[in-house]
Amino acid sequence: MKNGSLLGKARQSALLATALGVAALGSTDALAWSLEEAAAPYKGTTIRTVGEALPPLEAMDKLKSQFEERTGIKVVIEMYEHSEAVNKVMLDLNSKRGRYDFILQPHRELGRFVKSGHLESLEKYLNDTKLRDPSFKPEEQLYQGLWKEISWYEGKIYGFPFTALTMYMWYRDDLLNDPKEKSGFKAKYGYDLKPATNWKEYTDIAQWFTRPEKGFYGTAIQGKRHEALWYEWLNFLYSFGGDMLDTKSGSECGPVIVNSPEAVASLEYYKSLMAYSPADTLNYTWDDVMALMQQGKVYELIMWNDATYAVAEDRDASTVAGKMGFDLVPQGKGGKVGQVEGWTYLVPAYSKNKEAAYLFIQWMMEKSQQLNQHLNGGASARPDVYAHPDVQKISYSKASMDTNAVAKPKPTIPESPQITDILVRELSSYLSDAKGAQEALDTAAVEMSKLLGSCAPLKYPVQ
């Protein structure tokens, strides 16, 4: 078995080299290749994309003119709210109209798109010496685990990370270091006020800063019946030692464990934070809690790294810019954990301008564009971007890197969107008092097992 294992690894390495066209990347090619020459056959083409209206896409919209000037290829970017961006793409793919030449989508959609034949595998573009920039070496330049988790499926390359997303704890660093807050907190709770490292501390701090008479709250949860609810709860689920499926990779199917004791405890704790959140917290998504923090109305919450710029750095939009702190999600039974998430550049099978789209994606993955985008609210998948001195100065860079290092994969199997829908519905039923925590998660577990079939038996009995 040992020799077989070694042979398997060698074969995988060879396949990776072949897929990435490593053998074609000679120094002579590197000197000869130019974007202008590669793009010449496509001059005058218009390529269209769609994605989520957040700083990373806004930054790309500002950068695109440089590509347009060099290539003569026009880039049109459509921006929508998360759910609408996903729905727009699904409609276009199902109709096979080919409105979009490349798309930006959350990686939970990857398996469904691949199995439906909606996506173009990118190996042939990576192996095309006329299109492939020899200096583009994703096998060396990207976080490998992240890239393979959000952009590969069953050993094939379908894209490159647009945003390497994580969620971590945001808190008001200025209030944390206020002498009056520090002394008052210690007098009541018996320990120093500091960034929460466990959920008891998180609760104590949230309770301390909840002052509804002043319009200020300790925290805010994203409790609306929306994808935001599922994403936020996963932080609690993982930290408490739970998961949805008992698997090691997002593309695997396995036993359903979403109704485990750890999962139930995480959900009950999550709901307990409503006591320290604004009264309408069940109407909030990520946009709402981000706005609350920008307005200086919340002390701490769990939020996405690609939204951090709008709160921590943008002084025109945020009253708390320069006053924020960031750290890992508090630790529970599951230890230090984060969640692998990301939006990926993908090329639809029905795109009318695949080559031009590939050239733009490749150009956006260059370090200079990645750095510019990252500094303006992006979330790069390139380690050399995080190592840049200007990025090191950003207050939330360390939190992003630390969370990437302990991130867990989530399902990318074709049924992933349905799993999300099931859990959003059941989580919402518990938060709204329609069901108990165990009942809600038992219902979700049964439906997930039926959806996935024989590969996903129930590991925990339904009560």
What can you see in these coordinates?
The chain starts with a helix and ends in an 11-residue tail after the last helix. Strand 1, helix 4 (55-71) and strand 2 (74-80) form a beta-alpha-beta unit. It has helices at residues 2-20, 27-32, 35-39, 55-71, 82-95, 110-115, 123-126, 138-141, 144-151, 173-176, 179-189, 199-209, 227-239, 261-272, 286-294, 308-312, 354-364, 367-375, 383-386, 389-392, 397-405, 416-431, 437-452, and strands at 46-52, 74-80, 103-106, 152-153, 156-157, 159-165, 167-172, 300-304, 324-327, 338-339, 341-346, 407-408. It is mainly α and 463 residues long. Residues 1-15 and 21-28 have low confidence and may be disordered. The longest helix is centred in the N-terminal third of the chain and has 19 residues, at 2-20. The radius of gyration is 23 Å and the shape is globular. It has 23 helices and twelve strands. The strands form five sheets. Strands 3-11-6 form a three-stranded antiparallel β-sheet. Helix 4 packs antiparallel against helix 18, helix 13 (227-239) packs across helix 14 (261-272) and helix 22 (416-431) packs antiparallel against helix 23. It folds into two domains: 2-165 and 341-394, D-Maltodextrin-Binding Protein, domain 2 (3-Layer(aba) Sandwich); 167-339 and 412-455, D-Maltodextrin-Binding Protein, domain 2 (3-Layer(aba) Sandwich).
Name the features:
2 domains; D-Maltodextrin-Binding Protein, domain 2; 23 helices; three-stranded antiparallel beta sheet; 463 residues
